[in-house]
Design a protein that fits this description.
Layout lengths: L2 H11 L11 H11 L4 H10 L6 H10 L11 E5 L9 H14 L2 E2 L11 H8 L5 H12 L6 E2 L8 H26 L6 H9 L4 E6 L4 H11 L2 H6 L2 E3 L12 H9 L7 E5 L2 H10 L2 E5 L16 E3 L10 H4 L17 H4 L14 H11 L1
Parallel strand pairs: 1-4, 1-6, 4-5, 6-7, 7-8
Antiparallel strand pairs: 2-3
């Protein structure tokens, strides 16, 4: 139902009349039918019937809504953020957690008898090609390792699909725990991120959300540490890898987020850091701006349709909401982004414009040969 559903949800969440955890399935189920389709006057009556008192900023908001009789959602635009690499630079932490999980489980290639290990270069390729942790692991074993799955703690390699999935589930669970432990000590928001997010959160016309391919528990840890619970509570939509059936570059997570805030994708701007994230946003019909990391700096984001590319949101004197959410026909972040020739200026070894593009498998083979 969008912003006003989230708003009234927060009212119920703070009431002594309800004891279920906000955001839990039972909590939402308990009140969703009461909120659906209600006008503002009806919602005010509903609050009174539940014995709820409204004061401060919430009362001011209801006062501003007075006279609205048909629509609970007055969002005009949306701003959606990826998490890893956008909220904080997490990719090195993810890689450290993966390799530690391999080590704790004694993963060994049964053909070479060497321990499983992912290099920085290999992980950079993975994060720009494959979305989701389990998908990354499956790609490594099925594609990079030519179908050779590892032994774990001296046992036999998994053979059936069920055994392989069980191993992936176990490794992902342990990797997530390790990752959360590391994040709690290292999570710091990227420059300019909080300023732009706060500007959007303080505008009742803007829907703000987080859309990440990572597991929900891992994302929640990052958000609590880097954003703080007060900001997290103000989000209008939060989707993680657990919430959608397809991972980026599939557009499902962004199209679902747009549906939840009742906005056409063309009214939403996505902040991403990776090529697969950019592809997902554009495939959903959203505009996309990129804040790249060391792992993704050399990707051709403009070639995939990104509207703007910067190192971080503090560049060019700081990226403001007015720079990002512009009127139709107005250039996004005009004068506050890197040029279309950014790769050449950075000393890229990109092929000439008339050269035939390499497919992903060719790029992968070259990468593996260089390791």
């Amino acid at each position: 139902m969008g912003f006003y559903f989230s708003f009234f949800l927060s009212l119920f969440a703070t009431s002594s009349a309800f004891f279920m955890a906000p955001g839990s399935r039972s909590f939402v189920t308990a009140i969703h039918s009461d909120l659906t389709g209600k006008t503002v006057p009806e919602l005010k009556d509903l609050l009174k019937s539940k014995g709820l008192k409204v004061s401060g900023k919430k009362a001011d908001l209801i006062a501003r809504l007075e006279g609205s009789s048909t629509s609970l959602n007055s969002f005009t635009r949306g701003l959606l953020f990826d998490c890893d690499g956008v909220i904080i630079e997490t990719e090195s932490i993810h890689l450290q957690a993966y390799n530690e999980a391999w080590k704790r489980n004694g993963l060994v290639n049964p053909v070479t008898n060497e321990p499983v290990f992912w290099s920085v270069e290999y992980y950079d390729m993975l994060q720009n090609k494959v979305g989701g942790g389990k998908n990354k692991m499956r790609y490594f074993y099925d594609e990079t390792s030519s179908g050779v799955w590892p032994k774990s703690n001296g046992g036999a390699p998994p053979e059936t699909d069920e055994e392989k999935q069980a191993l992936l589930d176990k490794l992902q669970d342990e990797k997530t725990v390790i990752y959360q432990e590391l994040v709690r000590t290292e999570a710091v928001a990227r420059p300019g991120l909080l300023e732009l997010m706060d500007e959007a959160l303080n505008d009742p016309n803007i829907a703000v959300g987080i859309c990440s391919a990572s597991t929900k528990s891992a994302v929640e840890t990052v958000l609590d540490c880097a954003l703080g619970q007060e900001r997290v509570a103000k989000l209008n939509v939060f989707l993680a890898g657990d919430d959608v059936s397809e991972k980026k570059p599939n557009p499902l997570i962004y199209s679902t987020a747009c549906e939840k805030v009742e906005l056409d994708p063309s009214q939403c701007v996505v902040v991403e850091d990776s090529l697969i994230g950019c592809k997902a946003a554009k495939a959903a019909g959203c505009n996309c701006i990129i804040t790249y990391t060391d792992s993704t700096v050399q990707e051709d984001f403009y070639g995939e349709g990104a509207s703007a590319v910067v190192e971080d949101l503090s560049n060019f004197g700081g990226i403001k909401l007015a720079d990002v959410l512009v009127e139709d026909g107005v250039e996004i972040m005009k004068g506050k982004k890197e040029g279309m020739d950014r790769l050449n200026k950075a000393g890229s070894t990109a092929p000439p414009a008339d050269a035939a593009p390499e497919d992903d498998e060719t790029k992968l083979r070259k990468l593996l040969m260089s390791l």
